[in-house]
Specification:
The protein is an alpha+beta fold. The chain is built from 20 helices and 14 strands. β1 and β2 form a beta hairpin. α8 packs antiparallel against α9, α8 packs parallel to α20 and α11 crosses α13.
């Protein structure tokens, strides 16, 4: 047996070896940390302890943590007499600054140089790859990317150029004329969803409509636009709370695998600090992660392009799906099949989870405010009359202005992406405060959207916040559910059109009553904001 002294010596030797092997990174981290301490010293923030930051007193259960964070932010705002709205947080040895005021959010999101996503975006990249949503820097297991960013290595430039190249390739797939053709798909899948809900309506029982919304959104993104594979029409997917473990459509050679997997749950903070100084761990719940066997899809679409004689993206512009645009530019842009797979996986995740959440929260809120729901029904009757079977046209949807305001108000209070993050590649100056290069900076739309300087009723569901005259008078960065600036959501028009179409079907057929209204059913800030207990409602047929 070793003596206590020998054990101490052994531990000391291990730490010395680690220090030697990691000397450069440790020095870089120390320099960065010193700059951060100096520049951020006067900023407000929660109590921080040496080395551990604020992690020691944070709640471990996710719902409790949301209440605690809300209380912390309210206290910080109350102690901010100058309305500075810049908050510092230390998660272990990792400093993070949060911007709350729209004028500060504008400085960050408008930057054309500070466009690198923050290190937590590396977590979803483990299962959707490094597509347009996630950054492409290597994540240091011992210290997040502050060290590399402080050095401003050539890799950072490569990251920026890769993202810009991908963005340029993908942008045409969201052209207005192409989106117009997808509205038939929105209407078709919306009709399928409300038909399936018919068995639930007028039964008096509670039902969680979130799985139905997810399948509808997944069919829209995976159907005509991506892979032409539909979930709602499969018997094994109907009226169930989860996804089938495997679906193979041999007739069309489309293969997808759906795993019961959690979308990156913030299940406590600081849980793996000793190993890699990170503040988030992965856990599991019942949400679906869709993984595409993309090599099969890529092969088939490549054959289809050859058979059709399509030689460039101009010829395919009017008829291609998303993956075709990537394949047609593969050689010119030196894209590998893996690059294409990453973008497909990214848009499958980003394109269905966010819209399902937005539609769910809209229904959930309108189920709590019968006066607004009545207005939605009256508007729908004025457009469609008593016809519950006709597909909505583009002209119909343009007239549903109050419904659109309801969608936007739900996105204001419950933005699908509750937190946006950047890692600074160069110093950022905001009203006399220098945020050093390498710092992770967060924007929380869920807080910015409640700034009382810009919202008449900041904590209430009030659709008239989005009357045209009020929107035009408001700071443009007071409402950023799709982010803003050069890294804004490329599919935001697609999302709003989809949500408006599907919800027009829903409220044409049904009225809704929310079972657990706010402040119950706590929203959970995963990568996508979701309800803690689903969207449990009672449905009633209107005709």
């Amino acid at each position: 047996m070793w003596s206590m002294l020998e054990c101490v010596r052994a531990v000391g030797i291990v730490f010395v070896l680690i220090a030697i092997l990691r000397a450069r990174k440790i020095v870089n981290w120390a320099v960065f940390t010193a700059r951060a301490l100096w520049n951020l010293w006067d900023l407000n923030g929660p109590i921080n302890y040496p080395l551990f930051g604020c992690a020691l007193y944070l709640k471990w259960e996710i719902v409790d943590l949301t209440f605690q964070m809300e209380s912390i932010v309210q206290d910080l705002v109350a102690k901010d007499p100058n309305q500075q709205g810049i908050v510092k947080v230390w998660l272990g040895p990792v400093p993070i600054v949060m911007l709350i005021r729209p004028r500060h959010v504008k400085v960050l999101l408008e930057s054309n140089t500070n466009i690198t996503k923050a290190w937590p975006y590396d977590l979803p990249s483990e299962w959707i790859g490094r597509g347009l949503l996630t950054r492409r820097n290597h994540r240091n297991l011992f210290f997040p990317n502050q060290t590399e960013n402080v050095m401003r290595t050539r890799k950072m430039t490569t990251t920026s150029s890769k993202w810009q190249s991908r963005r340029k390739i993908i942008t045409p797939t969201f052209h207005f004329s192409i989106l117009k053709s997808y509205k038939e798909v929105f209407a078709q899948e919306g009709r399928v969803m409300v038909d399936q809900l018919d068995n639930i309506a007028d039964t008096g029982r509670e039902a969680d409509i979130f799985p139905f919304l997810k399948r509808c959104a997944l069919d829209i993104i995976c159907g005509e636009w991506l892979l032409q594979c539909r979930f709602q029409l499969k018997p094994e997917f109907r009226n169930c709370d989860g996804y089938s473990p495997k679906l193979a459509d041999g007739r069309k050679h489309r293969v997808l695998r759906c795993r019961s997997h959690d979308n990156l749950h913030y299940d406590g903070v600081f849980s793996v600090f000793i190993l890699q100084f990170t503040a988030i761990k992965l856990s599991q719940s019942k949400d679906a992660l869709v993984v595409v066997q993309a090599h099969l899809v890529i092969q088939e679409r490549r054959r289809w392009i050859e058979e059709e004689g399509i030689e460039d993206e101009g010829m395919a512009f009017k008829k291609s799906v998303f993956i075709d645009m990537l394949l047609l530019q593969q050689a010119a842009n030196k894209l590998t099949d893996e690059d294409i797979r990453e973008e497909v996986d990214t848009f499958m995740f980003e394109g269905h989870d966010t819209t399902a959440s937005a539609m769910g929260f809209t229904i959930w809120y309108l189920g709590q405010y019968p006066q607004y729901q009545k207005h939605v029904h009256e508007e729908i009757v004025s457009v469609f009359g008593d016809d519950t079977t006709r597909d909505p046209t583009e002209a119909d949807l343009r007239q549903l202005q109050f419904l659109e305001r309801c969608i936007k108000e739900a996105l204001r209070l419950m933005p699908s992406v509750p937190i946006l993050g950047r890692t600074l590649s160069e110093d950022l100056e905001i009203e006399g405060v220098t945020l050093p290069a390498g710092l992770s900076v967060a924007v929380a739309p869920v807080l910015t959207h409640r700034d009382p300087d810009h919202w008449e009723r900041p904590f209430e569901y009030f659709p008239d916040h989005f009357l045209p005259e009020k929107e035009s008078a408001r700071h443009p960065y007071a409402f950023v559910p799709f982010s803003a600036g050069p890294r804004n959501c490329i599919g935001q028009k697609f999302a709003i059109a989809e949500e408006k179409t599907v919800l027009s079907w829903f409220f044409r057929r049904y009225s809704v009553e929310t079972v657990e209204p706010y402040p119950g059913n706590r929203p959970i800030p995963e990568i996508v904001l979701k309800p803690s207990v689903g969207f449990s409602v009672r449905l009633f047929k209107r005709h």
